[in-house]
Specification:
Blueprint (H helix, E strand, L loop, with lengths): L2 E8 L6 H15 L4 E4 L2 E10 L5 H4 L5 E6 L3 E6 L4 H11 L10
Parallel strand pairs: 1-3
Antiparallel strand pairs: 1-4, 2-3, 4-5
Helix pairs in contact: 1-3
Length: 105
């Protein structure tokens, strides 16, 4: 069975930062070889998608970064900047560890 994971990145606030975060995440997925992977005999594909609103504006207004949600687990991150992409991809997608400093409860 195939499984898709999606990272939805808000581009509604703060002109340009959401697009830059999405671009950096896509780049890191390729660099780290995590865009498509085989886990436990099942293929997993990761997609980064932009969206207009995640309805968590309070969180992304606290800093210069964007908000994003990782599905299917539903982990919400706030104030994410392009420089955070490598850590998010390696830790959350690669190792399955939530990046606590960016997590929004």
């Amino acid at each position: 069975m195939d499984h898709d994971r999606r990272l939805f990145v808000c581009i509604n606030q703060k002109s340009g930062v959401g697009e830059a975060v999405a671009k950096s995440l896509k780049k890191e997925l390729k660099v780290q070889g995590l865009k498509k992977l085989l886990t436990g005999g099942e293929r997993q594909r990761v997609r980064v998608q932009t969206c207009n609103c995640l309805d968590i504006c309070k969180q992304c207004k606290k800093g210069p970064g964007a908000a994003l949600i990782v599905y299917p687990e539903g982990t919400v991150y706030g104030n994410v900047r392009p420089a955070d992409a490598a850590e998010l991809v390696a830790e959350h997608l690669g190792r399955g560890h939530v990046v606590k400093r960016l997590r929004v409860d």
